[in-house]
Amino acid sequence: MTSPDNLPGSPDSGQTPEVQVPAVPEAPVARRGMFGAEDSGDTSGYGGLVVRRQPQVSTPRPYGGYFDEIVDALALDDAIERVVVDRGELTLHVKRERLVEVCQKLRDDPALRFELSLGVSGVHYPHLTGEELHAVIHLCSITFNRRVRVEAACPDDDPHIPSTVGVYPGHDWHERETYDFFGIVFDGHPGLTRIMMPDDWDGHPQRKDYPLGGIPVEYRGATIPSPDQRRSYA
Amino acid sequence: MSTAYDEATEGKVYSVTGADWDQVVSGVRDSQDERLVVNMGPQHPSTHGVLRLVLTLDGETVNEARGVIGYLHTGIEKNMEYRTWTQGTTFVTRMDYLSPIFNETAYCMGVEKLLGIEDRIPDRAQAIRVMMMELNRIASHLVAMGTFGMELGATTPFLFGYRDREMVMDLFEYITGLRMNHAYIRPGGVSVDLPAGAVDKVGEFLKEMPKRIKDIRKLLDENPVYVRRTQDVAYLDLTGCMALGITGPILRAAGLPWDLRKSQPYCGYETYEFDVPTERGCDVYSRYLVRMKEMEESLKIVEQALDRIAGPLKGDPVMIEDKKIGWPAQLALGPDGFGNSPDHIAHIMGTSMEALIHHFKLVTEGFRVPAGQAYASIESPKGELGAHVVSDGGTRPYRVHFREPSFCNLQSFPAMAEGGQVADVIAAVASIDPVMGGVDR
């Protein structure tokens, strides 16, 4: 926690912070939270917290460890948009139309052998225009005792990613869950229906534009507004 | 039969809610339908909470089985995005409520990975984590095996299982203040050091528990009824496990010694001596044996961890030294089970304004976690529990997703149950040991 970008900026988010923050290309993030503060990035109830957007990073070679071997053995450089090595983990950002091909090779190639998939997770980045919705797949190779993360993104207005159930049958429920919570349509999934929320639910609850709660709660006839509609203490 | 239905598309509907079997039998007797669709659950004592199984039956044979989940979805992952990183432990502990310590540890390891402080967690905290996790593993397996016995018609294993689990619950209550929902593991260490006398209590537990495990094994291991109900039932081999992403006892019962404590050690597991039990039966009985043996191995680990806690690591800190992350207070156990640290209160209220400000900021605003994503995984009693943690640099998680082993393993129940008998469906689901709090989150 000693790196400069973790130190608090000046209370007024509009001015240059006293501590020099290197390489912050984006404006502070204004978030709206339980306490209703909308004017700055601060949702804690008092000033001083400024969150800055991180730039998208791409790690140059060599990646270190076994990561180079994985990327070399995969040999699908045109399918990979960028490679990120962060905190000892390898992330392959894959073009969505090539996702199935990449997964198939990761599973079947004798030099890769990622037999075990640990499921699909979704992340919604509303600020990344054109790639708002991410499907994140964690793979594990039991043969080589290695891990890799495969990430595919799709834009919000065309939320389609090809289904990988054919490669990893265990993705059946995971893709249904990601569809349910984020609205990513996995093309080719054998039965893409909601899994957690009721079938007739409106919206996809874990997206960032879906408020916490989101529905008024009824208690003995009295209606309690959803958390984002309640009185704020800012 | 209160709701209207279309008989042409749905066939004839019979509602069975209580002891009205005579009606049902007389209704079905003249039916020409060969296929019977049965909804088992969501409220059914042997479906482990609110799990619904839709079974298509031909006589006693299950032709098609589908699981319906989501009845216990509580939006834990979404809620966490609105609370600080430390408050997240309070949520995750409620996911798989039979293995709360594992949920907390996986989450905290994810946060620590994002913070880059994995190497700075004190050894004593790691040893306490290991001890608590292994105690929790025993408790979880005891519930699994106890309910399992009851579902197959034997109530004694259930009583034994719950009686023995109570010993672990008592330890947890003594150490953390609560039987469940502890929020004991925190980013940077554990919330409070072991209270005085905890080491002795765990020592007594270690003396008593092997006998108790033996008792359960005596009841079940060679019980002819139990063996015939479980052997060669719900078969799922290694190929099936791999395809469906199965981990944990089910995988080890298929012969693969894959245990993250050995293959990708965390919390210092590489320094403990224990074995990974495997079986080759791929059936319910093998999964039972694996769990029983794992409990015995867990006792070994608890013993080693306890030796370190009471010996070389005595008096060491249990929270990271970094004051920007470490929770400021060492809680003291009060007469009501929980309490503040009098020393800390005296310090912030009486002597240091800066300490008060720091305490206030850390507790209300929380610490910031550098942007990025991390995946931390541990071997929970049910399999690989993974936490995918994403930060945008703020004081609250941007997104947390859990790879819940119950969720993944439950997918495999159609593969185990289809083609078998109805009665074996119960055995199949019980051998997966799903906890719906974890499945639905």
TrEMBL record, chain A:
Any single Gene Ontology cellular-component annotation: plasma membrane
Cellular compartment(s): Cell membrane
EC number, as in UniProt: 7.1.1.-
Membrane topology recorded in Swiss-Prot or TrEMBL: Peripheral membrane protein
GO MF annotations in UniProt: NADH dehydrogenase (quinone) (non-electrogenic) activity; NADH dehydrogenase (ubiquinone) activity; quinone binding
Gene3D superfamilies: NADH:ubiquinone oxidoreductase, 30kDa subunit
Reaction it catalyzes: a quinone + NADH + 5 H(+)(in) = a quinol + NAD(+) + 4 H(+)(out)
Keywords: Cell membrane, Membrane, NAD, Oxidoreductase, Quinone, Translocase, Transport
Pfam family, one: Complex1_30kDa
UniProt-listed InterPro entries: NADH_DH_suC, NADH_quin_OxRdtase_su_C/D-like, NADH_UbQ_OxRdtase_30kDa_su
Residues annotated as domain NADH:ubiquinone oxidoreductase 30kDa subunit: 92-214
Residue ranges, annotated region (Disordered): 1-28, 34-53
Low complexity composition bias: residue spans: 17-28
Keyword Translocase: yes
Known partners and oligomeric status: NDH-1 is composed of 14 different subunits. Subunits NuoB, C, D, E, F, and G constitute the peripheral sector of the complex.
Family: Belongs to the complex I 30 kDa subunit family.
Job of this protein: NDH-1 shuttles electrons from NADH, via FMN and iron-sulfur (Fe-S) centers, to quinones in the respiratory chain. The immediate electron acceptor for the enzyme in this species is believed to be a menaquinone. Couples the redox reaction to proton translocation (for every two electrons transferred, four hydrogen ions are translocated across the cytoplasmic membrane), and thus conserves the redox energy in a proton gradient.
Listed name of the protein: NADH-quinone oxidoreductase subunit C
Species this chain originates from: Nonomuraea diastatica
From TrEMBL, chain B:
NADH-quinone oxidoreductase subunit D domain: residues covered: 152-441
GO molecular function term, any single one: NADH dehydrogenase (quinone) (non-electrogenic) activity
Record's keyword terms, sorted: Cell membrane, Membrane, NAD, Oxidoreductase, Quinone, Translocase, Transport
Main location: membrane
Enzyme Commission code: 7.1.1.-
Cell compartments where the protein resides: Cell membrane
UniProt GO cellular component terms: plasma membrane
Topology within the bilayer: Peripheral membrane protein
EC class: translocase
Domain of life of the source: Bacteria
Family annotation (Pfam families): Complex1_49kDa
Keyword Transport: yes
Signal peptide: none
UniProt key word Lipoprotein: no
Catalytic activity line of the entry: a quinone + NADH + 5 H(+)(in) = a quinol + NAD(+) + 4 H(+)(out)
Assembly and binders: NDH-1 is composed of 14 different subunits. Subunits NuoB, C, D, E, F, and G constitute the peripheral sector of the complex.
Family under the similarity heading: Belongs to the complex I 49 kDa subunit family.
Known role: NDH-1 shuttles electrons from NADH, via FMN and iron-sulfur (Fe-S) centers, to quinones in the respiratory chain. The immediate electron acceptor for the enzyme in this species is believed to be a menaquinone. Couples the redox reaction to proton translocation (for every two electrons transferred, four hydrogen ions are translocated across the cytoplasmic membrane), and thus conserves the redox energy in a proton gradient.
PANTHER family xrefs: NADH DEHYDROGENASE [UBIQUINONE] IRON-SULFUR PROTEIN 2, MITOCHONDRIAL, NADH-UBIQUINONE OXIDOREDUCTASE 49 KDA SUBUNIT
Protein name: NADH-quinone oxidoreductase subunit D
